Amino acid sequence: MRYAIQYDQPGRLRLRMGQYAFSEEEGWGIAHLLCQQTGVTQVRTCSQNGSVLILYTQEARREDLLGFVGKLRRKDIPAVEPSGEQNVQAIDLRFQEKITGMIVKRMIAKLLIPVPLRVLRTVVYAIPYVGRGIRSLLCGKVNVNVLDATAITASLLRGSFRSASSIMFLLSLSDVLEEYTKKRTETALTASLAINIDKVWLVTPQADILVSLADVKAGDVLRIRTGAMIPIDGKVVSGEGMVNEATMTGEPLAVRKTEGAMVYAGTLVEEGSVAVQVMAVNTETRIQRIMDMIAASEELKAGVQGKAERLADRIVPIHLLTAAAVYLFTRNSMKTLAVLTVDYSCAIKMATPIAVISAMREAANHNMMVKGGRHLEAFAEADTIIFDKTGTLTEACPQVSEVLCFADYSREEVLRTAACLEEHFPHSVAKAIVKQAEHEGLHHEERHAEVKYVVAHGIASELEGQKVIIGSPHFVFEDEGVELTEAHKEKIAQAGGNDSAVYLAIGQELVGAIFIHDPVRMEAANVIAALKETGIVNVIMMTGDGEKAAKAASEQLGITEYYARVLPEDKAAKVEEIKAMGRKVIMVGDGINDSPALSAASVSVAMKDASDLAREVADIALLSADLKELVTLRKLSQALMHRIGVNYKAIITWNTGLLLLGLMGIMQPTVSAFFHNMSTVAISGSSMRPLLKEEKEN
Question: Disulfide engineering: 430 pairs with which of 283, 300, 422, 467, CB 3.0-4.6 Å?
Fold first, then answer.
């Protein structure tokens, strides 16, 4: 392909191939091919002007990329589905084209089309608006459709075709904005939820073969190894491994899976290798079934009208009655038309969605995805916030909390020996032990023989002629037969609380226990305090942990209300119970077990590393791991509601002034309509200003 270099700086290269040198679909294929090149991180294509933007790292060579593009032929471009980002980009481009087209078409019509034809064109365009108004009346509804139809019809009857045309143009802009917002939000959500697994290893009698996930069917057996995500629901038929089910259960520690155990889509094999017989794929998985179940409640939420629409609908009957009264008492069609052409609802309908779009875009700039304006409103009005503990208020990164020593061994000897054994294996608990030893400056030279690792159990080796083992209680006490005395049990119970533990034994004697816990996030306490300053009255924590662990975390974070040992299925009931007290509830969680509670809350937030289902159910998704974004979101949502309130006052004050001037005969209807339209544009433009900057200034 022939191209010209438009921009060339380290890490960023923009090429121009000419207008419509490739189609939109071919652009997706070009991006797909370039993304497979070493060092290329992102590619954006635009078929309208034939541009290709390539972002790359130091691993990529500029000359190689240019050579690859130069050798590319149309027949080499594969047919691929667009990525989520490409879909969003296409929606943005179509929106820009549509808005530009509407403005250009209107300007051309004014300049080139004769007045009689413009009048006919205005009448034809008015038919759908009038039809919607009539249908609303036939259904017994006096809403914005009726007012729009009345204003347009009155303008036409009065001969004010320019006013009718202006009203319809502004209404059409509002419709385009609404459609764009909905499509873009839905597309961005779909992209964020995608599990990007295309290929899987299918077990066959001859060997494991790489196949497309789309070709997998129930009954097939897949091989899933260390580090791989499980893309299906199924049963383990051979092998064993440690599966991280944090997305399903919220627990940070991996769970041992052996023959006969069930595994689910979206979970991760941390270590080991398992052969899984497929029981459900795609829409048949447990995740999808739960999503379908929750979809019903989401449909109910989607039927709730926004604040702007409610206000506009309430104003319509008053507006129409005012126009009727003016005509009844004055018999003056000019004054009556002055009432109808100055429309409160048009500005409200325009300014509010623009303010919401601006807020959603600003939230995205702060690494937050909001799925609709009503969720920002609910977040601003909430007085209660409920946090899940694991992975939300905690790091989901295990750490050593305590080291117990028995017999004649010191604490340092226990930790040093454990780290010496565990450093050979990369699972999360092993990393926590090794990291703690390094933190305490305990050097653990190789003193043991060859290490034998038993997946999901522990480690066995020899140390100075004695057998040494470290691992789970099942491995140490049951499989290896190490004695656990009552004295041991009492000491462990007093020290460990609800923390998990691994045990170290040397020569069949228990010499130590290392407790692992999941620490709270460093910023969590400050975030909770800041949320209280914004008007959050009740801060609640719900966890499956025991009373002791829940109380300790609550005291550390400044939380006075918590619920311990809450089962996943009981979380939603607890949220409903709190809502029944009259509270408006924000629920913050990350696991599949949190999904029913997220759905039940007034407004819900999913953490950055949340499960796919939690992100699907949640109204807001954090794209950053920083809890401080909750405070930012609270301030952003409150600033949005403040702006909408200011807009309402400005719209009512300005348009009421225009109405009074029209009624007194000081201002003609055409002039009133002009100032009304200009004020609508001005307020809409003002609604696009950054909210947080405005919030700081206020």
Answer: 422
Model confidence at 673: pLDDT above 60 = yes
Would the pLDDT of 448 be above 60? no
Per-residue pLDDT, averaged over 523-536, amounts to 93
- The per-residue pLDDT for range 226-283, each reduced to its tens digit, is 877 788 889 999 998 888 775 555 455 678 898 998 888 777 888 888 999 998 776 5
Of 491, 209, 528, nearest to 385 by C-alpha is 528
From the CB of residue 260, how many other CB atoms can be counted at a distance below 10 Å? 8
Q: Is 82 helix (H, G, I), strand (E, B) or coil?
A: coil
The rounded distance, in Å, linking the Cα atoms of 616 and 465 is 56
SS3 state of residue 279: strand
Please count the CA atoms within 13 angstroms of the CA of 157 that sit on its side-chain side: 13
Q: Which residues of 336-369 are buried (b: 16+ CB within 10 A; e: fewer)?
A: bbbbbbbbbbbbbbbbbbbbbbbbbebbeebebb
pTM: 0.58
By DSSP bridging, strand 538-542 and strand 384-388 are parallel
Complete DSSP assignment for 329-396: HH--HHHHHHHHHS-HHHHHHHHHHHHHHHHHHHHHHTTEEE--HHHHHHHHH--EEEEEIIIIIB-S
Model confidence pLDDT, tens digit, residues 118-168: 899 999 999 999 999 899 889 888 777 887 788 788 778 878 788 788 778
Q: Rounded distance, CA 132 to CA 340, Å?
A: 17
Residue among 252, 286, 318 nearest 613 (CA): 286
Round to whole Å and give the CA distance between 246 and 465: 40
- Inform me whether the pLDDT recorded for 180 exceeds 80: no
Closest CA to 315 of 343, 341, 334: 343
Which residues are CB-neighbours of 299 under 8 A, at least 6 positions away? none
- Is the per-residue pLDDT at 178 higher than 70? no
> How far apart (Å, rounded) are the C-alpha atoms in residues 125 and 141?
23
| DSSP collapsed to 3 states, 503-531 | EEEECCEEEEEEEEECCECCCHHHHHHHH
How many other C-beta atoms are found inside a 10 Å radius of the C-beta of residue 435?
Answer: 15
| Cα separation, 610 vs 249, whole angstroms | 11
d(CA 365, CA 361): 6
Per-residue confidence at 292, pLDDT binned at 50, 70, 90?
A: very low
